[in-house]
Amino acid sequence: MKKNKKILFIGILLIIATAMSLSYYFYKKINKVKYSPIQVSEDNLKINEKIERKSEEKKVTNILLLGIDKEELASDTIMVLSIDEKNDKIKLTSILRDSYINFREDKVNKINYAYHYGGPVESIKVINSNYNLDIKDFIKIDFTGLVQIIDLLGGVEININKEEIQYINSGLSKRDKNHKHKPVTTPGLQLLNGTEALAYSRIRSIDSDFNRTNRQRNVISSIYNKLKTSNSIQYPQLVSTATSYVETSLNSNELMILLNKILLMKDKNIKELRLPIDGTWQDSTINGVYYLQWDKEQNIKRLHEFIYGDS
């Protein structure tokens, strides 16, 4: 079975941001983050200049979040993090990895393969050019540390439906054999440890990639809720674990500024969007490969309303 490690970015970012209250400790630990600068230019990253001006006017910062499937060297998860300072909101847009992008006839024309063909720079370029955005930076988080982070928080509460149970247990039995876990036996709201939450977030056979990204967001929200009620004595260990799995084009000062903005947002709820939106996509197969065809005009319109709107 193909290995699918999920990257729940915001959960880890919020762990680090919450720990800003221990600024001296955080400052020392943030240097563990791998810094990978990129050359920023309109041509290199295909930055939309009109949207760049709009972002400055609306006080919005867009950053690409990437999670990599190391087996096929492609982005397993793609999200756009939008920091809306004017409205004090954190906005998160998930882009489904099977979305069709025309690279070339002899290539795999899925948006997740942008990373395969050119790493973070190509990923930013493809998303900027296809969604008319002004992204200049990326954050990549290795999900290996998620199990430890959730366990340090004492687990996360997830509402599991009946159909998901067998897939969670199947994931637990086939993977993570060196970690402690218990079979899930009943549906409903229950506390999952790191290994169990990871198995939950990996489910994709039961339905579609749409519901898989929804499961990822469920875990993110649960991590966030746990952070809001956690004891600050846990922060040093949480930060030490989280920062070890981060790579970014932001330097230490820029990352601290970004995380401080997240921490100071008045609206603590994460606003969410998934692309393509309902009614704008269809399944297709080209040369035996599955793709998600999507209406570019409608999705760009909805994305921009989401990022730059007041709600």
TrEMBL record:
Q: Does the keyword Disulfide bond apply?
A: no
State one Pfam family annotation.
LytR_cpsA_psr
Q: Which residues does the UniProt record annotate as the domain Cell envelope-related transcriptional attenuator?
A: 75-228
Question: What domain of life does the UniProt record list for this protein's source?
Answer: Bacteria
Membrane-spanning intervals of the chain: 7-27
Report keywords, A-Z: Membrane, Transmembrane, Transmembrane helix
Q: Which InterPro entries match?
A: LytR/CpsA/Psr_CW_biosynth (IPR050922), LytR_CpsA_psr (IPR004474)
Of which family is this protein a member? Belongs to the LytR/CpsA/Psr (LCP) family.
**What is the designated name of this protein?**
LytR family transcriptional regulator
Q: Species lineage, top-down? A: Bacteria, Bacillati, Bacillota, Clostridia, Eubacteriales
